[in-house]
Amino acid sequence: MEATPATVLVCGLGGLGQSCLRSLMALRVPVSCLDLHPPRWDDAALAAALDPGVTVGDMRYPEVLQRAGVASARAVLLLTADAAINLEAALQVRRLNPTAQLVVRSSTRRRLREQLEQRIPGLAFCDPHDLTAGVFANALRPDGLEAAIDLEGERFTIHSRTLSNDSPRDLHGCLGRRQRLLQWLPAEGPPVAAVASGWWPLEGHPRSGDRLVWLEQATTLRTGRRRPLLPRLTARALVWRQALREAPTWLAARRGPLLLPAALALLVLLVVGGWQFGGGSFPRGVMLTLALLKGEFLDAFSFYGSELGPPMTLADLGPAFLGLLYALLGTLLTAWLVGLIVERLVGSRFGQRQPSPLAPGSGAVLLIEGGSLARRVAQTLRAQNVQVLRVASHPDSEDLEGCHRSLPAALRALRHGRCLAVGVLGEELIPNLEIALDLGERWPSARLAVQATTLVEARAISSLLSSMELVNPLEVAADAVVATAFGERVLAVVRICDDNLLITEYRLQAGDTLVGCSLAQVSQGYGLVVMLHTAPGGSPEPLPREESQLQPGARLVVLATLEALHRVEQGEVRRPTWCLRIASTPAQASRQPALQTLARFLGGVPSAMAPYLDLSQGEPLTPPLHGQPARLLADQLRLLGIRCQLVTAPDERA
Fold it and tell me: Under DSSP, is residue 68 helix (H, G, I), strand (E, B) or coil?
């Protein structure tokens, strides 16, 4: 089968390959397929559309790749589960087609991937576990947030709220400067617009029962500046003082109700031993008691007999028997201490250390199996101050923190704490569901997330199981793989309202589609949410103002669907629909600020904005603007004393 121009060649038609085909066909991108064996299709529609044209053969051989049409493909996706085969095939593809974008499925070490990407142009690696970890982490979050995202020191959170009353303000007035609406779900009917598109009716009023989902900047994780030394030392001293005050409570919580009786018993033993063995010298008796408690019975009593007089008689049998009991107790204590020390040393050396039980009253997320995926999910949650316990029958030596070898051991560690969420990440769906349902009965309030690699349309089926989210990592990763085939750099995936949103980085060069656009055109023309904007030579600005213009050398990090990224690639921008009719001129003192305001929103220099403040020929209209910047411009002009009105932009095609 000879590929047509602009075809994407998909090699490896397993779960990930077929998910990528569904995404590509939804975008109406021409595709061709290659697999080692005739594929087993999960989707009848895919089988009907593609099965007759599948090329069968080993993708590592040049003649097989040429039969599949590699020479004219715009992108080649190498998606088998064997990373070595994928990489070997990538080298062959690059030799046969020097310009195609290569996407290689691989879970090799990040350093190796970076080095290969630097040496082989147009090569990009993808790891479904890396891309899916954030989705699982957000599904297991115990704080009620839809998601939390950390980018270059800035934390962004995604909130969801269902209104209990009709909003007295329109949508424009409901959101603040550091917020971006992601979805508006009416109580009845379909969503108002596509998720994260920015195509919202700003004049609309949310009603009772409507659900609003929005992104906001939460906090700055680092500022780049350190506080002066004295305030930092004072704050540290206050922390230590508070820790000392809370130490008895903390010890009691960690050691349980036996701590106080054990301490009293030890004190009684020392007092009795000091009186019984001291021979009139209480300090010497205490020292002998400590020696006995260390297990040194013979040495202690030879010292006892030689120092206190004649050889032992029947009257000395009582103290000797008491000393024997002390020595036996000391032997047990010494053995326990030695065992504890050896366990810690061996655990540190060979990774066999058993995690500590959960503190009473504290909460944790429980992850069951999952291998490298569970390790990445745990790292993501811990970075956001969420305590994690893992169950891994074959733990990874790279991350043994909080890792138990069996589920009963993890349950014992949780016996005094609370389980906030359970993630079951095994490979088999039925055992995963069984474990999740059993633990859901044990902790009814815990959130549940289950890996379902064999389940097609897992996110749609999740609605049938209340309080449980089914996640197919291959479906989640597919959109990111396809976006990478378009030449984008996908940093992570976030799932909102059953849609996959891709956190994608753009580095703009001269001639790129976005160069010369305002951020309003990016957000409301193409349907992307701009999270970070870095101007050439500047520092990253989170949730930037939408009137900013993009220049070559700028960098954007956006949140968008695969469809929105494809619109950018195709240059399919939505036309602005609003104009501002200016009905009055400003006072002389406000004229220059008004010109500067118009220049900032309309693009250009202030002197070129003078015609918009000239009413000699009637009330002038501004060029068409998108809804959000039009509302902001109107608000700022009114603050300067200028009467203006938003009107529908004239249709240029009329």
Answer: coil
Residue 464 CA, distance from chain mean position: 25
- What residues pair up with 212 in beta bridges, in sequence order? 161, 184
Gap between the Cα atoms of 163 and 187, Å rounded: 9
Dist. CA 451–CA 17, nearest whole Å: 18
- CA separation for the pair 93, 114 (Å, rounded): 19
pTM higher than 0.85, yes or no? no
Task: Give me 215's structure tokens.
Answer: 């992104």
Cα–Cα distance measured from residue 451 to residue 376, given in angstroms and rounded to the nearest whole number:
14
Q: How far apart are CA 169 and CA 203, in angstroms?
A: 9
* Mean per-residue pLDDT, 216-230: 55
CA atoms within 13 A on the CB side of 271: 6
280 by Cβ neighbours in 10 Å (0-12 / 13-18 / 19+) ranks as: exposed
Strand-by-strand arrangement of the 211-220 sheet: 147-151, 154-162, 211-220, 179-185
Rounded CA-CA distance 571/75 in Å is 19
d(CA 617, CA 376): 65
- Please determine, for residue 257, whether its predicted confidence score (pLDDT) is greater than 70: no
What the block records as the tokens of 63 is 């003649």
Looking at the chain, the whole-number percentage of residues with pLDDT higher than 70 is 76
Check if the beta carbon of residue 468 is closer than 8 Å to that of residue 461. no
Nearest alpha-carbon partner for 145 in 127, 125, 159, 128:
159
Average pLDDT value for the chain? 79
The interaxial angle of helices 282-293 and 259-277, nearest 10 deg, is 120
CA atoms within 13 A on the CB side of 601: 25
φ, ψ for residue 602, nearest 5 deg: -95, -15
Q: What contacts 24+ positions apart, CB below 8 Å, involve 79-86? A: 79/10, 79/11, 79/12, 79/14, 79/16, 79/17, 79/20, 79/103, 79/105, 79/481, 80/11, 80/12, 80/14, 80/36, 80/105, 81/12, 81/14, 81/105, 83/107, 83/108, 85/59, 85/60, 86/12
* Full DSSP string of 514-570: TTT-BHHIIIIIS--EEEEEE-TTS--EES--TTPBP-TT-EEEEEE-HHHHHHHHH
Span 575-585, mean pLDDT? 89
